[in-house]
Amino acid sequence: MSSISDQIQHLASQTLRKTLQTVPLGVSRSISSGTLPIFIFHAVESSPKPYIRHLYDCHSPQSFERVLDEILKEFKPLEDLSPAGIANAGADRFLVTFDDGLRSSYEVATPILERKGIPAIHFLITDFLAGTAGSRVEEKFKASLLIERLKGQSAQERQDVQAILSRRGYTGGVDEALMAVRLEDASLYDEVAERLGVDLAAFFEADRPYITHDEAADLVRRGFMLGAHSCDHPRYWELDLDAQVDQTLRSVRHVTQAFSLPYRYFAFPYKNRGIKPAFYERTRDEVDLFFTTSGWGNRMNRDKVFHRVGMDHQPDAIQALKCGWRPYPLSLIQ
């Protein structure tokens, strides 16, 4: 159960979103005139993959193109994606980013972006980037796939899965319990998969959710930018400071060295919740810019931390932007 403070925060956020939707874009633009609109996507699929379906929505190629056209009516693409170019850009430009390095961002979204002349930054989870098809994936992908496979299963099978999860303290509904499993307990997914007769390694090897090293290099050759998105996509608020720093610097070094990049970008997995000033002190010399989904109102390192507006579940880009484009201190309400 969420705390009273969490409930108040949620209510304040919902109220603010509804209010901001009524504000004309011109007013939002003037209030945030020094803030570059940055949009974040994950996947572009004709039909959501089963390992994504229970994590977040995704655009079809057609809806992705419609959203881009809507943005292009109001803003121009930011052409200079260097650290200085991003830091100095204003509200007349926009930037597109993709998190996780999913295969559809390369195979489906990139040709659309090229056709429309829109640059983008792709943030890669470095432990999942392989030269050939591999089986290591985001643990929550396994949860979503197993939830999908549980549909139509017998009551006994669901009870068996519930028993496996409850032994480690994950109670409540089976779907919610699967999603709640922490990274250190990820072996539970293998136990559940075995009970359901699902070969996780074979499934993900055949489907290959992520782009390969060669495909990432091809993005660079085609003029797109790359950044790091941690080593294995943990929730940073569940990590201690040393682990946060390690995940960040190892992934940034990997991307920078593997692709000979003259810049160093990092996007927090999920958000920068749980990040303290000491984190930035220990990483600032090796990261040029940080990107998150909750950070505009944070005075801490404001020159280096850039907020992004999530677009996976948004059919209306301008409404999404008005909700997320918040001048300080309104942006403290996430």
Automatic annotation (TrEMBL):
This is Polysaccharide deacetylase family protein. The keyword Nucleus does not apply. Transmembrane segments: none annotated. GO terms for molecular function: hydrolase activity. Keywords: Hydrolase, Signal. CDD domains: CE4_NodB_like_5s_6s. InterPro entries: Glyco_hydro/deAcase_b/a-brl (IPR011330), NODB_dom (IPR002509), Polysacch_Deacetylase (IPR051398). The keyword Ubl conjugation does not apply. Residues 203-271 form the NodB homology domain. It comes from the Bacteria. It is found in: Secreted. Its EC number is 3.-.-.-.
